[in-house]
Amino acid sequence: MPPMDINDWWLAAAAAAATGFVAPTATAATEAGGQVGVVTSVRSGVVSAANERVVYIGNAVAFGERFRTDSTGIIHILFMDQSSMTLGPNSELVIDEFAFHPKEQRGNIAVNLIKGSLRVVGGFISKLTSPKGANSALVRTATATIGIRGGISIVDTQPDQTRGTFLFGEHMDVMSPDGQTVQQVTRPGFSVIANRSGIGSPFRFSPADMAGLVSQFENRQANRSSGTGSLISTNDRPGGLNTPGTSLAPNRVQHVSTEIRTQTPGGSLRSVLVNGAAQVQS
Amino acid sequence: MIEKNTPVSAGRQALLALCLSAVAIPAWAQNAAPPTQPEVEQAFREVIANAASVEARSKYATLLVRAGNFEGGIAALEGLLVSPDAPASIRVELGVLYFRLGSYAIAESYLRTAIDDPRLEPALKSQAESLLRDVVQRNKTSQLSGSLMIGVRGQSNPTSATDNSQVYYLGAPVARGNDAGPKSDMDTHFWGKLDHVLDLDKQNEAAVVTSLVAYANHYNSVDSYTKQVGYSKPFDLAILAGSTGIRFKPMASTELTIRPHLIFGGAMANGSAYFTNTGFGIDGDYRASDAMAWGGAYENTKLSFSSREDMTNSSLQGGTRQAVRVNASFEAAPGRFLLAELGYADQDGNAPYTGYRGPQFRVSYLLSYEPPMGSAGLPWTTTLSANTLRRDYRGADASVEALTVRNDTEWRASLLNYMPLTRDLALQFQLEYSNTSSNIPNYSNTNTSGSLGVIWKY
Fold first, then answer.
1. Residue A243 has pLDDT above 60, yes or no
2. Minimal Cα distance from B19: which residue of A?
3. pTM value?
4. CA dist., res. B337 & res. B292, Å (int)
5. A149, CA 20 to 30 Å: which among A198, B221, B429, B451?
6. Which residues of A touch B71 (CB under 8 A)?
């Protein structure tokens, strides 16, 4: 594991100072045990495996720390590079590597998903590009290594199989345990399954299956609160939900361009009629 | 700092507080300017410093979204779903954010869960359902969409008859006959579009994309069809045209898509065969950013006119036509789009005087705005367009003026207003003025038209 460098741990220092967490000194930060993130959400049934310590919101996440969840446990971790990971029920995860040097634009993050499910939202590290190539957040399992480049993926693993589902980003690489890239997924909503015999081709993951996949990271035992106020996701697009195709969709500009070209019979017919007889002007 | 009794109670307290402070979120979001990176980083440090602070987490999520970092906003919001106290609106937020990222399967998943949540406010549920309709369509392997319009149109000069009182015939100026001048007319028309996308489930987003256009009209002045020579009324038209091809991303890491395609079409005029049009083309789009897109196309088609008694030398009007265009589209602000298109067409013509070449330029501005009345919250859209083109013909037409090769310059301006009545039904109103000036007086003309139609989108 590469050592962490305190010179770039200003975020950790700020966090430690404010939370009362033992501030990582220059020496401590280079050792396993330095803070790499913070627990921002947790549902009962999560322990830090080293000492069976129950995990709470606000707990610092240490370098090399191992988390284990039971059938009800869920934990959401925010990392110093603004990555986040959500560990689902009946899962076990080890923070293998984490180093972030924002000024030098380098870093690496790797976790070992021993069992269960993990949602990863890549932060700065997964978006960096170094002379050696593009960085990825790595999730290692017994049957595959998943590289998540600047995006969001869900990885779930069983003893004999790992599935990576790509939700957004540049791409998700699914590699054999020896690190050889075998499949690259670039299209959101597609999955790849790796098992002992190899790595399959990407396939579309249906919305219904997706619902089952993401539900394991949620608490569906809803209480009464409903939330009020306007949506932050549409705040820059008033009324956007009424016309999503032209207000919110990432391809809205192309959509409008096509619409304008074909929204009237006259415009379209001129391109069909070209230079026909004068009598048929439209 | 909350008391750390149990993990569950800590989470519940935090999220309950979030619910209570939800009304505060829009206060930050109302600022017009996006936050600076230092502001986002400061908000992040506040979360790290006090992860249990609902205020800090809400502010962080809001700033990320306002900064356009939807992925970061998702990271912040998904953590809230661990608690049973997560507001029902959080899943709508996540559905919207995933939609804005183009990740439609998970957007559908979140929206369906949100809509099924009885806690969701009716107004928000209605909006979520609107977005869900769009998302479901995008998630289908076979996507069918289109529109039908029935309308009426009045034109001052539907036949493009010249305004000049003197025209050329066999090289000599002659007085234009009274029957050959502009005569206004009205028509009723039907217009249909059908678009089909068959997703091939490939990583390069390959899909068979097919478009069909159908049109038919009937002029008030046409009471029966005849093929008599010298027919001067406008023609009733029936047209079917379309294209089909495979659209795909040639390079996975870019937002460039191209579509080689086949072009086909045919028309009837006054109930008899008029022309066919077949060929091939390639078009493409490149999304430089969410707000900027480039497009382009090349088409090569063969136009074949039928021989008809009522159209002099109609078969000579056909030929091979090549056309190229580039266009740029820009979203200046939410609901405001500026589009520009530059093209060039070259038709060889079956006779020198029917072949031409020349450039074309078009600019459009589209504005969506709150409707002045009704419309169920659906915005009205006004499009202003200006278009000019030049046609330089290849040779002179001896039957008109053997020593002069025709060239035309056309200007066209239009205003189009789209007024939704419901999500599926709308009224469309259009005013258009065109002016063609030609070096041969026979072809100079103007036309003003106004149309009103009812559109059903499906």
1. yes
2. A227
3. 0.86
4. 10
5. A198
6. 121-122, 151-152, 168-169
